[in-house]
Design goal:
By secondary structure, the protein is α/β, with parallel strands linked by helices. The chain has two domains: 2-78, Arc Repressor Mutant, subunit A, CATH 1.10.10.10; 86-199, Rossmann fold. It has nine helices and nine strands. The strands form two sheets. Strands 5-6-4-3-7-8-9 form a seven-stranded mixed sheet. The chain has a two-stranded antiparallel sheet with strand order 1-2. Strand 3 (86-91), helix 6 and strand 4 form a beta-alpha-beta unit. It is globular.
Length: 215
């Protein structure tokens, strides 16, 4: 299974959270069983694509019966690691960092947010979602005691490389990076998810432009 997992394309992996989200919504609405055709209609994918994606991780459905929603939801959750509850810290308690801490349900996505840090004295001591903002100068001591695995970066672009270098030395294995500085190029041994909100907005601009062009 491990060799099979290593050969799974990133495009398949990036579809898994969407399956997880849709299946969670089905559970909330009391749906217990669904066919690949019905799921494809809800998600805007082909039934063949869904079957191919899920077959990468083993067979979950039965021909003529479909998928048991609760079982598939739990299995995809395990694949995504939502049962691991890895410790995470957030760096940067400004508007973006505050919004992410308040509104992102880390605990349902495989993480426990255990610390928030900033260097702005006006923010240090404030409490966000029950977590007091600590001085960034205390990162070394905090990480040596609590061993977080992941850092969420909501800091200025110019500070990102130095902070990532520092955190990597403290044992951070993964970064959820909102800084607009592409860490992947400089930290090949870490797991990086760069989030470029501006790129998403530009993609929307292109698609709206194409829609208008066809009208």
């Amino acid at each position: 299974m491990s060799n099979k997992r290593e050969n799974i394309s990133m495009s398949v992996i990036r579809r898994l959270p969407r399956y997880y989200r849709f299946l969670g919504d089905l559970l909330k609405h009391g749906v217990t069983r669904i066919s690949s055709r019905e799921l494809s209609q809800r998600m805007g994918l082909t039934a063949s694509q869904i079957r191919q994606d899920l077959n990468c991780f083993g067979g979950f459905g039965q021909q003529g019966y479909g998928y048991i929603v609760d079982q598939l939801y739990r299995e995809i959750g395990k694949i995504l690691g939502t049962d691991k509850r890895r410790r995470a810290i957030l760096i940067g308690a400004g508007n973006l960092g505050r919004a992410i801490a308040n509104h992102m349900a880390f605990e349902t996505r495989g993480f426990d947010l255990i610390g928030i840090f900033d260097q702005n004295p006006n923010l240090i001591g404030q409490v966000i979602k029950g977590i007091p903002v600590q001085d960034s100068r205390g990162l070394e001591e905090f990480c040596s005691r609590n061993h977080p695995a992941v850092a969420v970066l909501c800091i200025p672009r110019e500070s990102t490389h130095e902070m990532a270098t520092r955190l990597t030395k403290l044992g951070i294995k993964g970064f959820w990076n909102f800084s607009h500085y592409d860490l992947s190029v400089h930290f090949p041994d870490a797991v990086i998810e760069n989030v470029h909100l501006g790129d998403s907005l530009l993609t929307l601009s292109y698609r709206v432009s194409e829609l208008e062009r066809k009208e």
